[in-house]
Amino acid sequence: MSAKVDSAGLQDGYDLYHHSFFFTTAGEWCVVQQGMNDATSSARRYHWVGVSPADAQAAADDSFVVEPHNAVTDLTETSGASSSATRAPAPGEQLLLNMVAAEAGENRDASAALVRWNPDQLMHEARKLTDGPTLFAPAHHALLPEDANLNRLEKIVRGAHERHPADFAALLGTEGVGAATVRSLSLLAELIYDAPASHRDPAHEGPPGHVEVKPGGKRWADYAYAHGGKDGTPFPVDRATYDQSIAVLTDAVRRARVGDSVKTEALRRLVTHPTP
Fold first, then answer.
1. Which domain holds residue 262?
2. What is the count of structural domains for the chain?
3. 66 shares a domain with 166
4. Are 12 and 44 in contact (CB under 8 A)?
5. Which pTM was predicted?
6. Is residue 229 part of a domain?
7. What's the mean pLDDT when you consider all of the chain?
8. Do residues 143 and 246 share a domain?
9. Does the pLDDT of residue 275 top 70, yes or no?
10. Do 56 and 140 have their domain in common?
């Protein structure tokens, strides 16, 4: 589970390559594992300090998926280098996703709830959110990587559904559920349940109380839009999508049950500032 957490539950750009267990004769344990970030040529170490078997039985079932680390450290703490929280993602990197953050509880619960849905219903909602004209990022964008395509997601979701995971820990422990599936479910959970994900870097940022929260509960620009990314992954403007987006917005304004003056002002803004 510690390896699953640090490879799929905490997606910070560091891929695990070293994993060690240590035990005492009393049954106490710790885990030390290390990951490498190819984009920055740097390493990060994850420390887990366990408890005795007797204490473990009394611990909460979610102890492995809610702030489980004793420490997460890397050289940027002493070298003065920029952390992943303050620099733009390097080419090929994804926006950091921290599913084991304390503040990500709603997103964890919603992700597990999605897998308990009827798989046909879930995949219908997933395709509705990603197919055809949409203001959300296309499937090949960094938020929905190519290897997390809907056909692959459906196969994993159907397998996980048979196990009916009661919570996120059970979901994460399901065979076949990896980083791409967790990321896809997290995004769907935020869109469907309005359950915000966490992008807090546990190695460099303070406790949840010190994280900047913007109006509406969004911690920063969580999404990349169709006409240029706010997550450091811009892409060329697709003129057809650009025009269709304006048409969708224009039609929505015209159908809105508001006064003519409000409609006129909204349409004027679409003409002068057409990007979202």
1. 239-272
2. 2
3. yes
4. yes
5. 0.66
6. no
7. 76
8. no
9. no
10. yes
